[in-house]
Amino acid sequence: MRHAHTVEQVRAAEADLMARLPEGTLMQRAASGLAVAISNYLGHTYGARVVLLVGSGDNGGDALYAGAQLARRGAQVTAILLSDKAHDAGIAALTAAGGRIHPLASSAKGAAIASADIVVDGIVGIGGRPGLKPEAQAVVQVAVDHDVPIVAVDMPSGVDVDSGETPAEHVKAAFTVTFGTHKICHFVDPAAAACGPVHLIDIGLELPAPAVSAIQDADIRERYPVPHGESDKYSRGVLGLMAGSSQYPGAAVIATSGALAGPIGMLRYLGPDEVATAVRAAHPEIVAGEGRVQAWAIGSGLGDELEVDKVRELLNAEEPVLLDADGLKALDDSGDHIGVLATPHAGELARLLGVERSTVEAERLKHAKLAAERFDVTVLLKGATTVIAAPDGQVRVSSNATPWLATAGAGDVLAGLCGSLLAAGLTPLDAASLGAYLHGAAAQLASASGPLTAMQVAKKIPEATRLLLDQDIPG
Ligand SMILES: NC(=O)C1=CN([C@@H]2O[C@H](COP(=O)(O)OP(=O)(O)OC[C@H]3O[C@@H](n4cnc5c(N)ncnc54)[C@H](O)[C@@H]3O)[C@@H](O)[C@H]2O)[C@@H](O)CC1
Ligand SMILES: Nc1ncnc2c1ncn2[C@@H]1O[C@H](COP(=O)(O)OP(=O)(O)O)[C@@H](O)[C@H]1O
Ligand SMILES: [K+]
Question: Record-annotated residues binding K(+) (predicted)?
């Protein structure tokens, strides 16, 4: 996993470390990492035209010191000061290295930005409030208008660091260079989408348990329930699937494809006869009808055929239950649903919480956590990045999907796969995490930068799993 911490956690860790180091050491570490990342991005330093947008705090200080290092290696560096206040030692370092300083009033600043190879956003960092002041917005817009890439120092200025929300104007970066640890805005949309690829520079912080973790390749190998010599089809896990209806028979076929591509030994299908026939035709491996299962996946394409009372009974039984799509209507806030995994998209989560879909889209982390707490379930909120919130407060994200995955039926594949992982014995948090990540990896294989269907994603899950399990991960 990669980990993200809150601003408060970062400030505390920085204070601890700073007390043990000579003054300025952390900023020098940050600035050196930033300068190297900029040089690597440009592919050259000598003669490169670099413009720094410098705010009043230490974020601007990072930009100035990095600018000084680049200037020493032959870059033409110009700093535009957006505030009357700026990091004095940083200004002195840049000036000594031959960089130029423009106050905000300078008439040359527009031309400098327009002809730059890169603009460095040192407007605000973890000390920033969301939004950009008009003068900052104006200079950022010049870079946008002239297609000049922007590197964000720590994070794109204007985003809400601890929530990943973007309630106002903010920078959209080509890439971001951050320090010490990731921040929540790097992982959670819509802010994450404004970061571009994020480079982490180690500055030696000692950090507490993270606020949010992002799933990586290595997590699959560490946690996937691989069968062993003594395994049989029952011990590997049996999933009970209640999905599909005469209205939406395809959902049952697609969800089954997702489930059979996961770790289970067997799948029992419960549903209307004609749907069971369709599922069996596509997947002769399935067993239709009641029997013991280790977990349930309920909801994809059920339409009006959802039997609320029966589902509520299952929610109170011992076996874990995944609720998707129409199945989510059975969820109530009577509490004690610790083994339940709910997999809504933003519209479904909005209905559950009685708010607008746009509100959930704008505040994804907040609403995923709110629902996890209110319904006492693990919530997997689908979207370009998937946010997973457990009732104990743990949060994970999965960001490896491709936008081509936004296609009908993709959610049914995910429900089947996560149900399969639940039945194999993973916790709802791990089942959701591994399911979302494998789903994203399979979508990448199925897409190869082009269109895909949900069934093609399901077909690629075994290959994606194999590649991730076989991968030789260093360290
Ligand atoms: N504390 C440390 O040890 C380190 C800090 N570092 C850098 O320091 C940054 C934090 O620096 P600061 O705490 O000085 O805070 P910032 O530089 O993020 O913000 C400074 C000031 O900007 C003003 N401001 C707030 N919101 C604004 C807005 N929307 N528009 C314009 N101005 C606004 C406020 O007056 C605020 O005090 C980090 O993000 C990182 O870049 C790094 O050098 C690593 C080490
Ligand atoms: N822009 C996007 N980029 C990447 N993945 C996406 C994007 N939008 C949606 N997804 C993923 O596609 C799937 C869509 O699921 P869902 O909305 O339930 O569709 P359906 O109900 O038609 O199956 C989810 O796994 C979701 O995370
Ligand atoms: K910034």
Answer: 59, 121, 157
Burial pattern 95-125, b for ≥16 Cβ within 10 A else e, equals eebebbbbeeeeeebeebbeebbbbbbbbbb
Domains of the chain and CATH, by start: 2-214 (3.40.50.10260), 217-470 (3.40.1190.20)
- At residue 102, the 3 state secondary structure works out as strand
Place 475 in a pLDDT band, splitting at 50, 70 and 90. very low
ipTM: 0.94
Closest by CA to 414, choosing from 318, 329, 341, is 341
Closest alpha carbon to 114 in 178, 28, 51, 34: 51
Q: By three-state DSSP, how is residue 411 classified? A: helix
Q: Which ligand is nearest to the CA of 258?
A: 2
Task: Give the pLDDT confidence of 147-196 residue by residue, as tens digits.
Answer: 999 999 999 999 999 999 999 999 999 999 999 999 999 999 999 999 99
Check if 243 has its Cβ closer than 6 Å to any atom of ligand 2. Answer: no
Distance from C-alpha of 89 to C-alpha of 96, rounded to nearest angstrom = 10
What pLDDT digit, counting tens, does each position of 358-399 carry? 999 999 999 999 999 999 999 999 999 999 999 999 999 999
Q: What is the spatial distance between Cα 293 and Cα 279, in angstroms, rounded to a whole number?
A: 18
* Centroid of ligand 3 to alpha carbon of 164 (angstroms): 14
Neighbours of 401 (CB within 10 A): 25
In this structure, the residue with its CA closest to atom 25 of ligand 2 is: 411
pTM of the model: 0.96
Element spanning 435, H or E: helix 428-447
Ligand 1 centroid distance, CA of 128 (Å) = 6
